[in-house]
Amino acid sequence: MTANPPTVSEPATVGRAAAVKQQLEDALAEADFLAPVETADDGASLHIALYSSKCPFADSVEEATKWLHQAGIDATAALDAEFSRVVLTLPSAESVRMLIAALLQPWITARTTAAALADVLADHGLHSTIDVGTTSLSLVLADDELESSVLLARLLGAPDIGTDLPRHRRRGIRRLTERIQWLITGVVGSPVSTEVEHGCVHEADRLTIELTLEQARRLTQRLLLAEVADPSARLQRLLGKTVGADAYVGTPGHEPESDRCTISLRPEQARRLTHRLDPSLDLTAVRGLTAH
């Protein structure tokens, strides 16, 4: 009698690192972490080559092994002789999840926090640059005479913060920087630090505000309460995230003073927005839906 071939139980399959390869690749992308992932020859383990400078350990097998041990991750480190890069081998789905939590999640959280702050600043017409770390971020506002920083102060309830200062002079910019530092400290409830770089003929003045992630979240929440001069800008951004970047928000006849706005969507975008507003709706009933 011929025996039946052995079968692999579902838990064993799910427990393989290769089963969650996509989850690891998605987390790497969210963290903006350069580290190619390959399935090992055994078909179960994953190799991850660490090219990113964001690693919390030096580019050596010894340091990587020490970090893995401290993080409690069941994985091994080796050196890719061709490229002189550390390669981690993850044997199980659990080791992948633990690596994501320890190595990538701090960066994902920081980037999400920075994106939320950048979005709300953009809604108010403030263009910013944000440098991200795992526990803090640096918000940079660049403008002649720190005009963007003055607008930020106005949104935070200090419309006259720089009216008595000679902002065309270094002394005035320095005094304005001090006032903004104290203002934001009050808004977020704990001290922040600021640094100013004085401009020249070819460069604008630059104000850098150092914030912890919690401070950045508090600043974002406060700015969300401020009235937006052009609500259509925020609506356009939110629609872009929901249905695609080519969704358009404008005014009837392109009249700037109009108190109405129009939304232009492709039919597929309209169906996507309808589903987002009411996930329980049967979209087969709205296949003929069009939008302008």
Provide an overview of this structure.
The chain is an alpha+beta fold. It has nine helices and ten strands. The chain has helices at 10-14, 21-30, 61-71, 93-123, 147-155, 170-188, 213-225, 231-243, 267-277; strands at 37-39, 46-49, 76-80, 85-90, 129-132, 136-143, 193-197, 205-212, 248-250, 262-264. Strand 5 (129-132) and strand 6 form a beta hairpin. Helix 4 (93-123) packs across helix 7. The longest helix has 31 residues, at 93-123. It is flat and about 65 Å long. The N and C termini lie far apart (70 Å).
Question: Could you give the topology of this structure?
Answer:
Blueprint: H1 10-14, H2 21-30, E1 37-39, E2 46-49, H3 61-71, E3 76-80, E4 85-90, H4 93-123, E5 129-132, E6 136-143, H5 147-155, H6 170-188, E7 193-197, E8 205-212, H7 213-225, H8 231-243, E9 248-250, E10 262-264, H9 267-277
Antiparallel strand pairs: 1-2, 2-4, 3-4, 5-6, 6-8, 7-8, 9-10
Sum this structure up briefly.
With 292 residues, this protein is an alpha+beta fold. The chain has helices at residues 10-14, 21-30, 61-71, 93-123, 147-155, 170-188, 213-225, 231-243, 267-277, and strands at 37-39, 46-49, 76-80, 85-90, 129-132, 136-143, 193-197, 205-212, 248-250, 262-264. It is built from nine helices and ten strands.
Mean residue pLDDT? 84
In oligomeric terms, what are we looking at?
single chain
**Low-confidence runs:** 1-13, 288-292
How far do the termini sit from each other? 70 Å
Helix count, DSSP H or I runs of 4 or more residues: 9
Main sheet?
Answer: 4 strands, antiparallel
Radius of gyration: 26 Å
